[in-house]
């Protein structure tokens, strides 16, 4: 009851906020600082977090999001355009539901890390980058900097790679997409900047070091004063060189830039943290005891795959979860069947082929179905049917009528006999003789 009352109060406060988008209460000044002005947008707010599964607009977590002309794009915080979106990119889509059509207002592309490969485990398909363990899956898309397919054997220690993936916690990532920014020919000559997302877990002020994603990194003197608080979700940027990896800037990241009451759909790993269960830097709490148990189960078996989580934003960092499905395939989850061949405008670039995957991905192939030629069926010949006259059936003879039933003969009436009248004879009663008188006895 407390939770229901809290949600109702949230709904009332949201609806009462003026200047919002379709009554969702987004304040003037835009969605999460994007500068999108309110008014004229309309619809119900929704946020989707997950990998790009297919083009034709874009599909994220099985939902199709249209990309109108007013859609804003950002890559790791910097302005970009629609050409920056690729299959397998991890995105956060702020959208509005306009009568069943989901229009993207902003598409945020967030890379997990950019840096040099320091170790390769070909047997387990794992890489070490910036102290993070990157797990390659059969569906991981591998690309060159020119967006050409890349064979896994072409990766080598020292290559600079850009990873889009799901955070499994403790410095482990499941890669959705990997781009080789520099190969063997350019190794040592390329840009040595790095990027790392994660939770700021601890600090060492004496040595100016921070612990992010299970790795200790040194912070430049100028960046130390602006360091966010321990426990914050951060984006760290820095330089890699002979003297080690040095962070030059650390900024706090907001998990979701959307108003309270916004619907949220995300695919990610559920992790146990000091303040409870989290996914994508958001605290997740079930709307019921059963949902809490499902979240606990998903967090206890991280190797079982990511979970689909649906819910409503209770505050800036908390989601009230209404649905949990554990062990989903992030690149294929809930994708609708293709209605037909995609148009050229809806296809990804020609380089998006399964040859650059660790294995063949159905989601990867789904976005690149070739145009099927139109086939015209041959006309059936016009066959003239012979005019056949059916034979005349013989007339059925009339059944003779049955004779009328014979009436039974009339029986003769018996003669009438008069019963004789018999009078009984009058018989008189005989007179009984008198009794003789008994003589008197003499007295003695």
From TrEMBL:
<feature type="signal peptide">
    <location>
        <begin position="1"/>
        <end position="15"/>
    </location>
</feature>
<dbReference type="InterPro" id="IPR043724">
    <property type="entry name" value="DUF5666"/>
</dbReference>
<feature type="region of interest" description="Disordered">
    <location>
        <begin position="403"/>
        <end position="444"/>
    </location>
</feature>
<protein>
    <recommendedName>
        <fullName>DUF5666 domain-containing protein</fullName>
    </recommendedName>
</protein>
<feature type="compositionally biased region" description="Pro residues">
    <location>
        <begin position="403"/>
        <end position="417"/>
    </location>
</feature>
<feature type="domain" description="DUF5666">
    <location>
        <begin position="115"/>
        <end position="177"/>
    </location>
</feature>
<dbReference type="Pfam" id="PF18914">
    <property type="entry name" value="DUF5666"/>
</dbReference>
<keyword id="KW-0732">Signal</keyword>
<feature type="region of interest" description="Disordered">
    <location>
        <begin position="343"/>
        <end position="364"/>
    </location>
</feature>
């Amino acid at each position: 009851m407390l939770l229901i009352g809290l949600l109702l109060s949230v709904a009332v406060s949201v609806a009462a906020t003026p200047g919002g988008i379709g009554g969702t209460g987004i304040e003037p000044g835009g969605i999460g600082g994007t500068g999108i002005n309110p008014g004229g947008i309309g619809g119900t707010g929704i946020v989707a977090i997950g990998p790009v599964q297919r083009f034709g607009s874009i599909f994220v977590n099985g939902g199709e999001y249209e990309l109108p002309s007013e859609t804003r794009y950002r890559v790791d915080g910097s302005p970009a355009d629609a050409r920056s979106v690729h299959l397998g990119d991890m995105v956060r889509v702020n959208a509005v539901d306009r009568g069943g059509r989901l229009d993207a207002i902003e598409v945020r592309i967030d890379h997990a890390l950019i840096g040099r490969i320091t170790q390769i485990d070909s047997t387990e398909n794992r890489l070490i980058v910036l102290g993070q363990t990157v797990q390659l899956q059969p569906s991981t898309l591998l690309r060159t900097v020119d967006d050409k397919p890349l064979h896994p054997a072409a990766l080598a220690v020292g290559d600079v790679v850009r990873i889009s993936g799901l955070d499994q916690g403790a410095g482990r990532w499941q890669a959705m997409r990997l781009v080789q920014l520099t190969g063997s020919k350019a190794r040592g000559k390329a840009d040595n900047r790095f990027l790392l997302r994660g939770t700021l877990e601890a600090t060492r002020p004496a040595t100016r070091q921070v612990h992010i994603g299970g790795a200790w990194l040194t912070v430049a003197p100028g960046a130390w004063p602006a360091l966010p608080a321990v426990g914050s979700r951060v984006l760290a940027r820095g330089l890699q060189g002979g003297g080690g990896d040095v962070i030059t800037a650390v900024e706090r990241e907001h998990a979701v830039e959307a108003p309270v009451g916004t619907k949220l759909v995300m695919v990610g790993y559920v992790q146990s943290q000091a303040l409870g269960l989290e996914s994508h830097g958001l605290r997740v709490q079930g709307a019921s005891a059963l949902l809490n148990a499902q979240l606990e189960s998903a967090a206890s078996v991280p190797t079982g795959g990511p979970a689909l989580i649906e819910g409503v934003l209770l505050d800036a960092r908390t989601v009230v979860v209404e649905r949990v499905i554990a062990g989903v395939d992030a690149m294929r989850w809930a994708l609708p069947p293709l209605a037909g061949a995609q148009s050229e405008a809806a296809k990804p670039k020609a380089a998006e082929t399964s040859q650059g995957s660790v294995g063949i991905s159905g989601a990867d192939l789904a976005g690149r179905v070739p145009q099927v030629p139109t086939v015209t069926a041959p006309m059936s010949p016009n066959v003239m049917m012979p005019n056949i006259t059916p034979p005349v059936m013989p007339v059925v003879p009339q059944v003779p009528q049955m004779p009328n039933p014979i009436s039974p003969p009339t029986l003769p009436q018996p003669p009438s006999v008069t019963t004789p009248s018999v009078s009984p004879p009058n018989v008189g009663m005989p007179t009984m003789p008198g009794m003789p008188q008994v003589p008197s006895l003499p007295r003695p």
